[in-house]
Design goal:
globular; alpha+beta
Length: 101
């Protein structure tokens, strides 16, 4: 079965405190849904090299055992509560993608 991945890129972070409130809710929701964080945030020493139209802001990569599990975790009640904590006008590029077996 192919794995599923959440890929999030944050072009700009205008309210780091509200983002921290989201992180406190999202982390446990992701873990409860079976997700494993595969990336280290730049704010915690993670390195990013951006090419072409890329940005060096926060990039998050989370792995799930299946694509269906990744979708279910996003749609879960716990993660939906975390989304409410994101700041108004917040911008991110979020995708759920299916891996290759």
């Amino acid at each position: 079965m192919a794995k599923g991945y959440w890929v999030s890129v944050y072009p700009a972070i205008s309210d780091p405190e509200r983002l921290a409130a989201y992180d406190k809710l999202a982390g446990p929701a992701v873990q409860a849904g079976g997700g494993r964080n595969l990336s280290l945030l730049p704010s915690r020493g993670g390195r990013v090299v951006a090419h072409e139209a890329g940005i060096t802001q926060r990039v998050v990569l989370i792995e799930f055992d299946s694509f269906e599990q990744a979708v279910a975790a996003y749609e879960s009640e716990a993660y939906q509560k975390a989304l409410v904590a994101l700041p108004d006008g917040f911008e991110r590029d979020f995708r759920i993608v299916e891996g290759i077996d």
